[in-house]
Amino acid sequence: MTNQIKIAAIGVGRWGVHLLRNFLAHSQVSVVAVVDPHPERLTAVKQQFNLDKNVLLTTQWHDLKQVPGLTAVAIATPANTHYALIKDALQQGYHVLAEKPLTLDPGECRELCQLAEQHDLILTVDHTYLFHPAVERGKTVVQAGKLGDLRYGYATRTHLGPVRQDVDALWDLAIHDIAIFNTWLGQVPVKVQATGTVWLQGEVSREWGVGSREVTHSPLPTPHSPSQGLADLVWLTLTYPDGFQAYIHLCWLNPDKQRRLGIVGSLGSLIFDEMLRSSPLTLLHGEFEQQGNQFIPVNQSQVMLELEPGEPLQRVCDRFVVSILNNTPSEVSSGWVGTQLVEILAALTASLKEGGKPVFLNK
């Protein structure tokens, strides 16, 4: 087939296996290799997807250099491995789709974006929610002014696991809601604050892929405990240029799973509740009419907004392929978009270390 691109899947754990599934189903993609340090995962995906015998299955990243005509790699490995893997991939001439976050350091992110541009390669970050039909539709609702004057936003993202060992709950979970707020508002925060608490984990975990060495996380002290480790509970405040504030609650040890984000305005609220799978986006109309010293709710109604069908991750993969074929970076989720989000997370981490001290972002 013309325009067929050869892709290698790097990491086939909990999320990487879904990237592999989507690329295997794509008509313009040929999956030619799968890399994972765990042999049992390679065996599992070979059986699950009935992979062709010509697909290279290896535990070693550097074996990809033996694959002729490799076009791109999809990297779904622990975040603390991203920089080395992505840099090597770009230097080898591969287009890259990387699981979020791009890296754990804004300077590294900028370096990778510049490297991709120097080599005329596509660098895309898998910010899946930015391709969700509810997020796309929500952007049109907010920016059309249907909520009136915007007052504040809120989000809750909780579940009982998975508990990551490479990043804390802030870096694992917050990036989704920050990306959605930025997209709906058409702005990025100018000031951030974060507080958090550590219960579960210590300092050390094992790094993936480039070599199996022990790595020590930067300690994240909490206002309630001198212990070091990865924050399990985090509270965030984002302040935008026009004064709008968004409040985010993140935790990976709540038995109640919540994926809810809302923006409240003078004429109503827009709610994205991912747990309501049949109708996750709701526009709630309602405002106050003042009668004397009383405020009376009026014009109340509820509309479940219709959404285009489609799996968000399938859209991520398809647009990555289109970006490669057209040699055009993603406007939605380029490496530079990923860098901007990492800059925000780094500022939040600085605030977290200082027990919630406001941190201003340079613009």
Automatic annotation (TrEMBL):
Gene Ontology MF, one: nucleotide binding
Boundaries of every GFO/IDH/MocA-like oxidoreductase domain copy: 139-270
A matching Pfam family: GFO_IDH_MocA_C3
Domain (Gfo/Idh/MocA-like oxidoreductase N-terminal) ranges: 5-127
InterPro entries in the cross-refs: Gfo/Idh/MocA-like_OxRdtase_N (IPR000683), Gfo/Idh/MocA_Oxidoreductases (IPR051450), GFO_IDH_MocA-like_dom (IPR055170), NAD(P)-bd_dom_sf (IPR036291)
Name of the protein this chain belongs to: Gfo/Idh/MocA family oxidoreductase
Source organism of this protein record: Desmonostoc muscorum LEGE 12446
